[in-house]
Structure formats: C-alpha cells, structure tokens
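dumping this here before i forget
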Amino acid sequence: MDHQEHDNHMNSNKHDHDKHTGHSPEMFKQKFWLSFALTIPVLYFSQTIQNLLGYNAFTLPGNTYIPAILGVFIFFYGGLVFLKGAKSELASKQPGMMTLISLAISVAFIYSSLITLNILDGMDFWWELATLVTIMLLGHWLEMASVMNAQGALKELAKLLPDEAELITKDGVKKVAVSELKVNDKVLIRPGVQIPVDGLVVKGESKVNESMLTGESKPVDKVKNDNLVAGSVNGSGSLTMKVTRVGDETALAGIMRLVSEAQSSKSKTQLLADKAAAYLFYVALLAAIVTAIGWSVAGESGAFVLERVVAVLIIACPHALGLAIPLVTAISTSKAANAGLLVRERSALESARNVDIVLLDKTGTLTTGEQGVVDIQADNIKELLAFASGVEQESEHPIARAIVTKAKEMGIKPKSAQKFTALAGRGAQASIGDKTYFIGGPQLLKERSVKLNAKYKNAAKNAHKNGQTVVYVLQDEEVMGAIMIADTIRKESKQAIASLHKAGKKVAIITGDSEGVAQWVAHELNIDEYHAEVLPGQKADVVKQLQADGSKVAFVGDGVNDAPALTQADVGIAIGAGTDVAIESAGIVLASSDPDGVVKIINLSKATYRKMQQNLVWATGYNVLAIPLAAGVLASIGFVLSPAVGAVLMSLSTIIVAFNAQLLRGVKV
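structure:
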C-alpha cells in the first residue's frame, strides 16, 4: 500500500464512520446523559417494573402518564439520531445497526402510544423504549470516543503544563510566558518543575519522570545532550535546557494528534458487529412476517398476533450487540495509552495477535543509536578506564563520551589530566602525572610506530568482524589496552526478544550496517535471522520477502525512512514517539523507545480480541435464541415469552456483556 492508498484508506474509514453516526462524540454524550436522567423516572413509574419488583410508586397527579410523556421526549430527543441514521442506511441500501435500532424503537413507540391512548389493550413499552435509546446512545458514544480516555489523559497533562518558564538571558533569569519561548532559547528547569517545551540538556544532571508520556514509571537519567519532553517532570537536579520544539511541534502535541486520529478508524470486529446487525435486521423482519402469518392462520386474535410481532421486533434490537465491541474498544484503548501504546488504527491492534514474524529495525530500536563501550581488552580494566576517561573527560567527541560514560557506569573516578590536545583524525592526548597518554585508532599506532601483540591483534580482528570501532590506550609508547566502541544494545532488548519468542513469534532484524554488526547484534540477542546492508528504500522489499510464504509481519521502526516498510507490513509499529511523532504510516506508535512495548501490543491484542469474540457470541447468541421464543415456537408446550420478560432478559444480556468487557481491565499486558 503506497502513501496515496494509505490516505484513501484513512479517508474511507472516516467516511464510513461518519455515515454510521453523522455526529460528534460530544453530541452522543450529551444526549446519553439527559436520556439517562429521564429514563430513571420512566422506569420508576412503569407499571411493568412495579409488578416485576413488587413495589408501588408514590402517587402524583397523572403519574400513570409520566412514562408516556418522558418516553415521547426520549424518542424524539435521543432516538431521532438513529432514525436519521436509518434513513441514510436505507438510502444507500445498506441497513445495519441504525436501521435495526430505529425499527425497534419505532415499533415500541407506536405500540405503546396505541396502548396509552386506549386504542389497544396490553402492556406499554415506554420503559423499554427509554432504556433502549439510552443504551444505544451510550454504545455509540463509546464507539466514537473509545480513545477519549487516552486523549483526555493527555489533555489533562497539557493543562498541567506551566504557564511560565524561566528564560536565561544575558541579564540573568527572568520569567516569561511559555508561548513566548522560541527555538534555541535557554531555559532553567528547577527541581520538581514540569518541563514546558521540548528541548536538549546543555547543563546539569537529573532524573526525569516521563511516565505520563511513556507509561514507564521509572525516572530516566538525563545528562548533557539528552532530550527533554514537554509534560515530563524534573527530579531533584537542576537542568539548563535549550529549546528545540515549541507549540504544535512538541512531542506532546504530536502524540495528541496521533491519538485523535484513532477516532476515524474502526476495528474489524466492530465492522463484523455492524454486519451482524444488518443480517439481524433481515432476520427480525422475516421472523415478524412469519410470526404474523403463522398466528393469523392459527386463528389467534389480532391483539395476540400484534403482541407477538411487537415482541419479536423489540427483542431483535441489539442492546448487547450495540455495546459488545465499543466497551471492549474503550477499555483496551485506555489500557494501551496507560502502557505507552498509542493506537492510531484499531484494526492494527486487533491484527497484532496474528503476527508470525516481528521485524525490528536495529538502530534506535534494539540499539540506542549512540556510541558506547561494548568490550575492553586490558590486564587491568578499571585502571585503563581511569586513565582513558581522564584523558577524554574534556572532549565532546562521541567516542570520548562513550568512554567517560562507561567509567561513570562502573563507578570509576577519572584521573586528573592536564594539557589535553585533540589530534585531528587520530585521537587525543593528555598528561597525567609525569607521563603522556594517548587514545586513538590504527593511524595513531602507525604514527607512533607502536606494534600490537597477538592478543590485541586478535581482539582487533574480532572487533572489525563485528563492525566495532577499536581505540587503543597508550602510555607513552606502550599499549595499555583496547576499547571496542559500537552502537550499544538497549538493556531492555534481550528481555523483549525473549518474551516475543515465548509468545511464539519469530524475530528478525534489519539494518543498513555491515554483516558483522548485524550478526553480532543477532547473536547477542538470540534473534532468529538478520538482514544486513539494507538501504532505506529496500526495507519494504525485505518485508515483502518475509510475507511471501503467507506470514503476517509486524515491522518495528523509528520512523526515519521507514514509512514504506511500515505501510507494507501487516502491522506497522513506530517506536520512540517521544522523539519522532510525525509518523503517518504506523498503525501503532510506542511512546517510549522500549522494544518491550511490542510484546505489550501482542498481549493486549490477544486479550482484546478474546473479549470482543466472547461479547459478540453472547450478544448475537441471545438474539438467535430469543427471537424464536418471542415468536412463540414453544407455544405448543405452553411457553410463550411475553414482551416484558423478553425485554428484561435483553437488559440482563447487556449487563453480562458490560461486565465481561470490564474484566479486560484486570488483564496484565
């Protein structure tokens, strides 16, 4: 699927959703709450409910007409949206959920009106009409706004963003409105303060809580050159930040855009529920016609025949079917957001359970994308790092930073160095005590006429095979040791790969790096296969190769040059939304860069689909059994399901579906 097809697909989804509802989530919300409030007195004063529960409503002048008066209002206020939807469905010759709901509430309205006006004898259905409209409004509200919990949490976070920031100027620190900040401004972030915009640490060290964005509760260490995201909360350290993005360009604003896009997509199971409603419409009409003809031929009275027809049409209305999928979708989307998974297309979350192969982009996904120390060869590693970090602590070179970071991680204090000099293209040197120390690669060795012994030659050979950079530490003309530098593997990657294997998924990696680098990473993480030296434009071809035997492929990339592969994959997952949120081709976006999020997606997908199927089976199963009973198929043995009892059972079915959906909240992802 190319970009244009993807856009058309998204537009098609939006069109289908709009045709199905024609209104905003906020409108359904307002109609639901007012209808719900009016339904309570309808139920209380309904004679049927009084008989069922064994109580007498308190007396008011004309209280017997309260259900009728409020029922009429609910029909036109809350039910009109379904009648308009039914008109649209019938005009396009595609009867579905709206048509089925309209049929049931219209029959209940006409039949109840005739009874209230004493034109017919029997029991009215104002209470059933009111509850039916209210429950359907709730279902459509949940369906359209299933991502509101996620978006709401982000909006609440946006509200908490500070109105002011401490801008660092030539004259000192002054408070300014956040809206006045510009790219490259420097801002002071005090301990405990919420970060106002996206930026880069230029001074200071601290731990930052990014849980509201990533779902990870553990604070993240922040040092010089690390990214800061608007909305996260600074810990106990003080930071100076250079502004990199403001306003709508921030990660938070981008994430909110991604979440809102999910409103335009439907899950395949929701589409299945809509299709079931369409079939149910024809089944209900056919059953009503057969019922009318059958009982008329049997010689029953017109009132009895009408009661049976009304019972069939009311019971056919999908109370439970209307809530079966939206409730599960709402809960799963909320759980996803809390876990740092931003669902742009619900069908992507649903499809993730069927993935056979997870293809991960190496750089920035399984690895940090930054240079780090991966191996050291020396007689005394701690001593080597003390001298090496002492020489490099003033350098800004990526290799120097990697060495200093490694020493810090191991708790090694750098030696105090003087006379630091950068050797262009060769390395660096500095004096420690009365000796001179050098750090550099083969060019430095050649320049200083230093020969390597067999141990260091073998170490260098293996390092080059694995695509690693080797730098040597010299004390004057003597080799103290060798440090291997490479793109470091994330700490979380090994567990994530193990979890994917445990879930029965095959794991592959793709990279533009050399065969040696790919082989090393695959070996370190126990990955099944690797694809090396792949150009950005060729990634989609690799996805096609893996799909050739019918395998379902999930591609996980960082969004940089990954759009074709994300689109080609059965499930496209973009990782690291905190740094790149403008990803149009991914169905799911991970707010953090932790590859374990892929495992969470698969687990949530399985749990969500399981609940959807259970609810769908229960909801449709109820109608399949209840319609024949309402028609009177067991009348020969003396059992005739009254409309009132059928309506109560239908409400019970809805409660069961709602309860089953709530069980999803307890599922651990």
